[in-house]
Every structure is written in structure tokens, then in C-alpha cells.
Amino acid sequence: MTEIADKPVAMTPAIERFILYWGDMGENWGVNRSVAQIHALLFVAGRAMNAEEIADALKIARSNVSTSIRDLTNWGLVRRTPVFGDRRDFFEAEGDVWEMASKIVAIRKAREIDPAAEVLKACLDAAREDPAAAPQAVRRLTEMKALIDLLNDWYEQMNRIPKSQLLPLIRLGSKAVEMLGPLLGKKKGANS
Q: What CATH number has the domain spanning 13-95?
């Protein structure tokens, strides 16, 4: 069980700006602005909050908070947390930024990339069977599908690597290409 201080989140200009920005970014990604703002608030709060506190802090309707919390909980970005001595439901955001980012990427992939890959495959299959389809169109669709498949495979591989091993690899950045140069058939300093 979580213990909680009754101290409200200090809505400083920087915190307000972050919450507003996160809401705008969420809306650009097809997520309801309130959902994204609630997520941002819970993330920066660093403690469990009940629906009334969330509604008061963001100046939104309590019913909107309930609906938004349901979405965030279903996505695994927020969890219900019991608070000792309080019967109300409290909620807290995933505090590990790596876990949060991984979940957001997985959600985005499922909502955008996977359906696009399915449509691309269907279009390519249909184009290959259509004698009227221009060869360059089939070739370009084939190349695009190969790239999407390669990126999906890469995503699945990266998802299986433990964070403790993946973070140093990410930090290597272009140094990894330099180190792997001989294996990649590239000379040090050569541009592709």
C-alpha cells in the first residue's frame, strides 16, 4: 500500500508547460488531450493521486478523468494504487521513463505501423497479381514492404534485449558503426 502526502502538485509554470505540451503531443498522435495531460500530471507528480485531485489540478470534469484513467490503465501507463486509510481509488504513472517510452512505442506501433504494414502487404499482393500494374510500382511497393519488415524485425529484436544491455548500445550511436566498420565492409571515415 502506498502512503500519500496531502500536498498538491506544485503547478509551476514549467510543470504547466510540460503538461500542456504533453497534451498537445498526445493529440498530434491521436490521443485525447485530457488523457495525455492526465498522464503528464501523474508522471511529474511522482505520487498517487485520486480522481478529484486530478480534476482539480487540471480543471477538467471528473467524468473526463475517469474515462481518461481507464484508457491510461488499459495501456499500462497508469496503475491503480491503494492508499492506506483511504477508500478512494488512487492512480500513479509508470515512473521508469524507459518502461514508459517502451509502452508508448508499442502502442504507437500497434495503432499505426502494424495496420499500415497490413495494408501495404495487401496492396503489394494485389499489384503483383494485376497484369496492368506498372512494374516500377510493384518494385517500389516491394522495397517499401521490405523496409517495413526489416524495421519491424529490428524493433522485435531490440525489444528482447534487456535495458541494461540496450542503453549502452544506444549511447554508442555512430561509434558502433565505426567499431563494426570492417564487418560492414566500410573503411573508417568512408561515407556511404
A: 1.10.10.10
